[in-house]
Design a protein that fits this description.
This protein is mainly beta. Helices cover 0% and strands 51% of the residues. The protein has a single domain, classed as Sandwich (Immunoglobulin-like). The chain has no helices and 12 strands. It starts with a strand and ends with a strand.
Length: 143
């Protein structure tokens, strides 16, 4: 019998250590994959929207993202106790390259927001127990 479980959100938290004087605000929507069936034959996809707004000119902003619970951005995992559910985050909807870091360029002189999406995928054919799985990779903005 297949076990169903609910995937909680992959929360991407924001830290802005180098931009305190730039007064940047980061808003990130939660990434929710929904219900995954153990040994599911197709991957599950979801996305999260990121909005960055800075008070002063900061045309080039570099972002890094941690590996979360797995401590490895090339092999991410959501966890539920000792159980691990493999997933990955991507900068493009085609899901062709893994997110570890990327640069964002925007004209902050006009105080306009910079918007982009992060795309996620839970891989198919994983036999894990029922429960709530989550991860919290940290997104860091650097000047």
């Amino acid at each position: 019998m297949m076990k169903a479980f609910r995937l909680l959100v992959v929360a991407i938290l924001a830290a802005v250590p180098g931009l305190a004087s730039a007064a940047c605000t980061v808003t990130i929507t939660a990434m929710a994959f929904g219900t995954y069936q153990a040994d599911q034959l197709t991957p599950m996809d979801a996305s999260s929207d990121v909005v960055i707004l800075c008070e002063r000119n900061n045309e080039n902003i570099f972002l890094t993202m941690t590996g979360g619970a797995s401590n490895n951005s090339a092999a991410r995992a959501m966890v539920n106790g000792a159980e691990r559910l493999s997933y990955q985050l991507y900068p493009d909807a085609a899901r062709t390259s893994v997110v570890t870091s990327f640069a964002v360029t925007a004209d902050k002189n006009r105080r306009e927001s910079t918007n982009f999406s992060v795309f996620g995928r839970v891989f198919a054919n994983q036999n894990v127990g029922a429960g709530n799985y989550s991860d919290s990779p940290v997104l860091t903005l650097l000047p």
